[in-house]
């Protein structure tokens, strides 16, 4: 997969003129790339298209001009898959602030307890962030970035829809899993060139 470069960034006026249409397109892409695991954790598997859109949205919102572009490319390119991996944003989504705060204090290092299983292969998620997202007292962030690195055999198995695939959270306070199938499986398999 090619990382995004300055050449991929369109003129802000062009983006603004096409924003409604482009948001609709990316919404369709994102829909098949979201995996909900348990009652309040969602994984948003990113790709070049979702990151292209995210960069343009940040430029649209913040209006930082040319100077902002390099920062956005640096921030979002790490979430563009490299051809033998899947990359995602994991979000702990609890609307009630008090409940969210209490729950996050029980889920320290949850980002180290994520496993993608395909057939006999178990691929552990690796935190993909420069900043520690867990505090010494055991509180975790509500947002994490992960990478799942596939070897050739695991990638081949993932592309075979007849082989069971799941995304599992194995944290002592949050043990949940979800199947990866249908349109989601097909969309994610495309990242494993």
Task: Please summarize what this structure is.
With 193 residues, the protein is of the alpha+beta class. It is built from six helices and nine strands, in the order αββααβαββββαββα. It has one domain.
* Major sheet summary line: 5 strands, antiparallel
Mean pLDDT: 95
Beta fraction: 25-35%
Strand order of the largest sheet: 1-2-3-7-6
Question: Using only CA atoms, what is the Rg?
Answer: 17 Å
Number of helices: 6
- Sequence of secondary-structure elements: HEEHHEHEEEEHEEH
Helix content: 25-40%
Terminal residue distance:
8 Å
**Structural class determined from secondary elements:** alpha+beta
Question: Using DSSP, what is the number of strands?
Answer: 9
Whole-number count of domains: 1
**What gross morphology would you assign?**
globular
Low-confidence segments, given as residue ranges, are: none
Protein architecture, described:
There is one protein chain. The protein is an alpha+beta fold. It has one domain. The protein has helices at residues 12-31, 48-62, 66-76, 97-104, 152-159, 182-189, and strands at residues 34-37, 41-46, 85-92, 114-118, 121-124, 126-127, 143-149, 165-171, 174-179. The strands form two sheets. A five-stranded antiparallel β-sheet has the order 1-2-3-7-6. A four-stranded antiparallel β-sheet has the order 5-4-8-9. A hairpin with a 3-residue loop joins strand 1 (34-37) and strand 2. Helix 1 packs across helix 2 (48-62) and helix 2 (48-62) runs antiparallel to helix 3 (66-76). The longest helix is centred in the N-terminal third of the chain and has 20 residues, at 12-31. The protein is globular, with a radius of gyration of 17 Å. It starts with 11 loop residues before the first helix and ends with a helix.
């Amino acid at each position: 997969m090619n990382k995004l470069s300055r050449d991929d960034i369109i003129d802000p006026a062009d983006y603004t003129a096409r924003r409604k249409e482009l948001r609709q397109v990316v919404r369709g892409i994102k829909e098949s790339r979201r995996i909900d695991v348990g009652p309040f954790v969602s994984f948003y598997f990113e790709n070049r298209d979702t990151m292209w859109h995210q960069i343009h949205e940040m430029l649209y919102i913040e209006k930082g001009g040319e100077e902002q572009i390099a920062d956005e490319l640096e921030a979002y390119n790490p979430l563009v898959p490299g051809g033998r991996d899947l990359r995602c944003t994991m979000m702990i989504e609890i609307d009630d602030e008090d409940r969210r705060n209490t729950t996050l204090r029980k889920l320290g290092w949850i980002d180290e307890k994520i496993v993608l299983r395909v057939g006999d292969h178990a691929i552990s998620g690796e935190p993909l962030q420069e900043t520690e997202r867990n505090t010494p007292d055991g509180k975790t962030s509500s947002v994490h970035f992960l990478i799942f690195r596939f070897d050739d055999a695991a990638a081949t198995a993932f592309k075979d829809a007849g082989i069971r695939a799941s995304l599992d959270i194995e944290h002592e306070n949050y043990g949940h899993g979800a199947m990866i199938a249908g349109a989601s499986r097909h969309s994610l398999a495309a990242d494993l060139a």
